[in-house]
Amino acid sequence: MSEAQLGTREYLLAATEVDQLTVGVEEEFLLVDEESGRLADRAPDILSDVRRDGHDLQAEITLSQVESASGVCLTMPELRAQLSGARRVLAEEAERHGSRLIATGTPVLGRGSPNALTPLPRYHRMTREFRALIGDLPVCGCHVHVGLPDDEARVLVCNHIRYWLPTLLAISANSPYCNDSDTGYASWRYLMWSRWPSAGAPPWFETASDYYAAREQVIASGAAIDLGMLYWDVRLSAHQPTVEVRVCDVAPTVDDAVLMAALVRGIAATALASGTRAPAVPQHLLRPALWRAARDGLEGQGVDLVTGELAPAADLAGALVRWIRPALEVSGDYELVDESLARLVLDGCGAARQRSAFGRTGSLGGVVHFLAEQTRSG
Q1: Peptide bond connecting 149 to the previous residue in cis, omega within 30 degrees of 0
Q2: Phi/psi of residue 274, each to 5°?
Q3: Closest CA to 367 of 348, 346, 353
Q4: How far apart are the C-alpha atoms of 4 and 7, rounded to whole Å?
Q5: Interior CA angle at 25 toward 203 and 261, to 5°?
Q6: Could you list the mean pLDDT of each consecutive 10-residue stretch along the chain, which spans 378 residues?
Q7: What is the number of other CB atoms lying within 10 angstroms of the CB of residue 315?
Q8: Over the range 60-98, which residues count as b (16 or more CB within 10 Å of their CB) and which as e?
Q9: CB 341 within 8 Å of CB 171
Q10: Are 23 and 242 in contact (CB under 8 A)?
Q11: CA–CA separation, 355 vs 324, rounded Å?
Q12: Environment class of 38 (CB within 10 Å of its CB; exposed 0-12, middle 13-18, buried 19+)
């Protein structure tokens, strides 16, 4: 996008337009043993005993993962309350079963045995079809949903979010450690997940019909066994009238998750209000930009998709906020986003904070303890 496009808008968004864009967030978490800090296959026990108190808490593909899903929310305070409540309930129940709940994209410490899958036919079919790729699991993401009126609007918004995928990934990066080692990346989860044949950034689509046709071709190829396995970084939800953004690592804290939701809704509202098409960034530029975001996070360099040159990732994040500022001001989210992003630039994204914890404690076990406390209190 040009500097003019990234600057302050001449138009104003009507309050009703932003208010109609609902948001919801799904968060995936790891369960670790409270003594060893290694993965613990205790999801069935935790989910069978937990008092849900109205929270949507679910199993994931492995027995060492759990997931929460917020309800449909209109405001960020409402979303924050729901996410905080779900984390609290899961963390308390995990501790009752000798475990800790941690919000990180990949397991910090390895395990001595293969990952145990949740015993559902779909997951066993995935094992047969995709073989050793199942060994990459578990990984944990944060999925943001935005409700939109029709599929043409959803495809328009998907195209705009596609442009900002590297920036959203850099802001959310929260998986530097995996299986007892520092990967050198800020989001190792993204690199692991990108191995799946239906994952990564989607193409730019002209119409909803083009989207549907591409989706069916992916399934026909066997790269996805159903609509739920279309793992594009942003997609039309298979079951909800929403755009679903899947590029982000699970957020370290509730505030970080709310920031991602506010940014995604801001992009959607701005795209709808502008009525313009998103830049059709070629895959050969977008893929390296995503790799760079996964490597550097918010602290390093990103790829400016206008020039194709490197630029500070924090500057690219600032450009995003400037572009969506009118929408954020109408929804009342601008101060939240501005302050949250300033805090991230100062304190570091989730990956940087994990590495700071290692620097303080000198051990990966210390990182796991830090993550458990951050997840519970956050």
Answers
A1: no
A2: -75, -35
A3: 353
A4: 5
A5: 70
A6: 36 52 97 96 93 89 95 97 96 96 96 80 90 87 95 96 98 97 98 96 97 96 93 94 97 98 97 92 98 98 97 98 96 97 96 98 98 88
A7: 12
A8: bbbbbbbbbbbeebeebeebbebbbbbbbbbbebbeebe
A9: yes
A10: no
A11: 31
A12: middle
Q: What is the pLDDT of residue 156?
A: 97
Where b means 16+ CB within 10 Å and e means fewer, 229-239 reads bbbbbbbbbee
- What is the Cα–Cα distance from 85 to 56, expressed in whole angstroms? 11
Question: Collapsing DSSP states into helix, strand and coil, what is residue 223?
Answer: coil
Structure tokens at 130: 């995709």
Give the C-alpha separation, 198 to 221, whole Å. 10
From 126, 175, 91, select the one nearest 352 (Cα to Cα). Answer: 175
Q: What pLDDT sits at residue 64?
A: 95
Q: What is the pLDDT of residue 10?
A: 36
Pairwise CA distance, residues 221 & 90, whole Å: 38
Alpha carbon distances (Å) from 63 to 42, 45, 53, 105, 258: 6, 10, 22, 16, 27
Amino acid sitting at position 344: L
CA nearest to 72, candidates 110, 108, 25 = 25
| Residue 235 · residue 227 · CB < 8 Å | no
For tokens 């995928």, what's the residue? 165
Distance CA 119, CA 232 (A): 25
CA distance linking residue 297 with residue 25, whole number of Å: 21
Q: What's the Cα-to-Cα distance from 151 to each of 111, 185, 205, rounded to whole Å?
A: 43, 35, 12
The C-alpha angle with vertex 327 and arms to 140 and 237, in degrees rounded to 5, equals: 40
User: Counting Cβ atoms within 10 Å, is residue 227 exposed (0-12), middle (13-18) or buried (19+)?
Assistant: middle
